[in-house]
Write a structure and sequence with these properties.
The protein is of the alpha/beta class and about 140 residues long. It is about 45% helix and about 25% strand. It is built from five helices and five strands; from the N terminus they run βββαβαβααα. The chain has a five-stranded mixed sheet with strand order 3-2-1-4-5, sandwiched between helices.
Length: about 140
């Protein structure tokens, strides 16, 4: 695999985007994509973002229940990832995203970020935790 790794924290309203450094060692929050009502357009826009960031692989956070079982949100994420696959040749993989949003929120709260300002960054920070978990796994 060549290129950076881009991670998506896929939600119903927003998608957090994170990107690795050129050596795929570190995860950096990048941006938050606000979804439209058109899932195909959203998938195309996210593929474009990944391509612009030089992605050689896309990691999609997989929302599992606390016990590791799958939920309705897990299925929604799998369906959306399939839309991404139809629009790109970039490899797409999943990474467990349990606790990433809670951890991102904890960091923002401890940093004194006001509630109304957290929405702008929480998803990209959660995506960076998803990517960090994935990078730790592949770099062992």
């Amino acid at each position: 695999m060549t290129g950076r790794i881009v991670a998506f924290d896929i939600g119903d309203k927003r998608v957090g985007v994170a990107v690795s450094d050129p050596f795929n060692m570190f995860a950096l929050p990048a941006e938050t994509y606000w979804r439209t009502k058109d899932a195909d357009a959203d998938a195309a826009n996210l593929v474009r973002i990944a391509e612009e960031k030089g992605a050689g692989r896309i990691v999609c956070g997989l929302p599992l229940n606390f016990d590791g079982s799958e939920s309705v949100q897990t299925e929604k994420t799998r369906r959306f990832a399939e839309r991404l696959r139809q629009k790109t040749q970039i490899e797409i993989v999943f990474e467990d995203e349990r606790f990433t949003t809670m951890e991102a929120e904890r960091v923002l709260i401890s940093g004194g970020v006001r509630r109304e300002n957290r929405k702008r960054t929480i998803d990209s920070i959660a995506a960076s935790y998803i990517l960090e978990g994935y990078l730790n796994k592949i770099n062992k």
